[in-house]
């Protein structure tokens, strides 16, 4: 098979400096609705800086003579990453199944359509392209467009979805994505994965050359959690406190589909106890509230004085709030 751009292929270039998004579809005959004979069409996408190219198909039909899951040399759409200035074939598409989204490995992407003389009606595809900087992750606050780091705050929403880059398509190679959750003082983070398929072999470490997902209650590594890879039907994690981190790491080996998860900020109920004592100056009521997450204790003591009690000199009411002592004087 010839290299991209040779053999008389027609090339169309889309640059993010001129167009941010649009649609692509092969040219058909106005009268028959068929491709021209022996069609070869190149679609080149050129982004700027940290931009990546995402392709989402809405229609796809390139029949194969070899079967529904096997592509020949004709009626195919080939996907190339641009690696160190050279085209690298990463996927060949054909058949009637709608392909999953495609995300470029860098700022450039190349698609090559090859069609045979054996034209049939209703053949072709339609795809929408986007130049983006969010790695195909639609939710979360991203401080730096060149980094795959997203923040999720309790004061913005109590529940939402997170996903790997380009989900449900393959996630990029050589990428590190951080998902950071920030809850309230009495919150913890509950995460339930509805889909999990990360390329790798347990224990998902460097010796197995695996991609992996890491969980942590800290910005640094948390020994409480192992690294996760492979396929999981049910996976639920919960933080110990208000902060939680999820990190996905991929290498340059094989590609996986990634993950999708529902996160929820849940508040721990505050336990309240009361104790009443009778002092010489009146009734003392103490109230304590303890958080099961942090073990913090907030104390408040109020001393009330009966009106019938004779008060001498200056001391009237003493109020203790936390560790602050306030002394009021009476006339």
Automatic annotation (TrEMBL):
<dbReference type="InterPro" id="IPR053207">
    <property type="entry name" value="Non-NMDA_GluR_Accessory"/>
</dbReference>
<dbReference type="Pfam" id="PF00431">
    <property type="entry name" value="CUB"/>
</dbReference>
<dbReference type="InterPro" id="IPR035914">
    <property type="entry name" value="Sperma_CUB_dom_sf"/>
</dbReference>
<protein>
    <submittedName>
        <fullName>AGAP004160-PA</fullName>
    </submittedName>
</protein>
<keyword id="KW-1015">Disulfide bond</keyword>
<dbReference type="InterPro" id="IPR000859">
    <property type="entry name" value="CUB_dom"/>
</dbReference>
<feature type="domain" description="CUB">
    <location>
        <begin position="9"/>
        <end position="132"/>
    </location>
</feature>
<feature type="domain" description="CUB">
    <location>
        <begin position="148"/>
        <end position="266"/>
    </location>
</feature>
């Amino acid at each position: 098979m010839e290299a991209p751009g040779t053999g008389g292929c027609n090339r169309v270039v889309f640059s993010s400096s001129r167009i941010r998004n649009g649609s692509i579809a092969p040219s058909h005959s106005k009268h028959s609705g068929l491709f021209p004979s022996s069609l070869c069409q190149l679609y080149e996408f050129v982004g700027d800086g940290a931009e990546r190219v995402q392709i989402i198909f809405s229609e796809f039909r390139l029949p194969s003579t070899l079967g529904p899951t096997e592509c020949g040399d004709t009626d195919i759409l080939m996907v190339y990453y641009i690696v160190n200035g050279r085209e690298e074939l990463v996927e060949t598409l054909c058949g009637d199944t709608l392909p999953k989204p495609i995300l470029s490995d860098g700022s450039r992407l190349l698609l090559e359509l090859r069609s045979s003389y054996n034209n049939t009606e209703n053949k072709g595809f339609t795809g929408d392209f986007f130049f983006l900087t969010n790695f195909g992750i639609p939710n979360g606050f991203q401080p730096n467009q060149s980094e795959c780091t997203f923040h999720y705050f309790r004061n913005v929403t109590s529940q939402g979805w997170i996903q790997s880059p380009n989900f449900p398509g393959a996630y990029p190679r050589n990428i590190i994505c951080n998902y950071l959750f920030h809850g309230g003082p009495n919150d913890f983070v509950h995460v339930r994965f509805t889909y999990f398929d990360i390329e790798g072999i347990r224990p998902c470490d460097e010796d197995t050359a695996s991609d992996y997902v890491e969980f942590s209650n800290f910005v640094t590594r948390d020994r409480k959690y192992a690294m996760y890879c492979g396929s999981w039907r049910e996976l639920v994690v919960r933080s110990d406190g208000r902060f939680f981190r999820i990190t996905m790491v991929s290498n340059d080996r094989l590609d996986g589909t990634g993950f999708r998860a529902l996160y929820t900020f849940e508040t721990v109920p505050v336990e309240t106890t009361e104790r009443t004592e009778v002092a010489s100056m009146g009734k003392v009521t103490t109230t304590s509230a303890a958080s099961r997450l942090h073990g913090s204790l907030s104390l408040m003591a109020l001393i009330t004085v009966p009106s019938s009690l004779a008060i001498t000199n200056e001391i009237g009411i003493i109020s203790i709030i936390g560790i602050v002592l306030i002394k009021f004087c009476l006339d």
